[in-house]
Write a structure and sequence with these properties.
Blueprint (H helix, E strand, L loop, with lengths): L1 H12 L6 H25 L9 H23 L5 H18 L2 H9 L1
Helix pairs in contact: 2-3, 3-4
Length: 111
């Protein structure tokens, strides 16, 4: 939902910059999803990778890893080189679309 709101805001204001609130929300979700995966892995221990839904667990780990990678890249690339930062983060933001697939998992669990 937040990804859709951010894209809508950028389209309405014809800019690649977004308000800081979107950045705050992204960091919040990154921390939340990372904690969720870590707690599940600690709870299930080795069964986390041997259970019936191992592919979903691996998919969640992939999503969290891409979120963390994106956040690290934002920290590494300095703000003063906006063009380079834009190209690096835009390549990684393609991976954000993959996060939408997380909805598939949620919908499957709700069945």
């Amino acid at each position: 939902i937040t990804l859709g709101l951010q894209i809508d805001w950028q389209a309405r204001h014809v800019t690649s910059e977004t308000p800081p609130v979107f950045r705050t929300i992204e960091v919040f979700f990154c921390i939340t999803f990372t904690l969720e995966v870590v707690l599940r892995a600690l709870g299930y221990r080795w069964e986390f990778f041997a259970r019936q839904h191992v592919l979903w667990h691996l998919f969640d780990c992939f999503l969290v890893a891409t979120q963390i990678l994106e956040e690290v890249m934002r920290l590494i690339v300095p703000d003063n080189d906006a063009n380079e930062k834009s190209s690096v983060t835009s390549n990684l933001s393609v991976l954000r679309v993959v996060r939408i697939l997380r909805l598939i998992r949620v919908m499957r669990l709700m069945r």
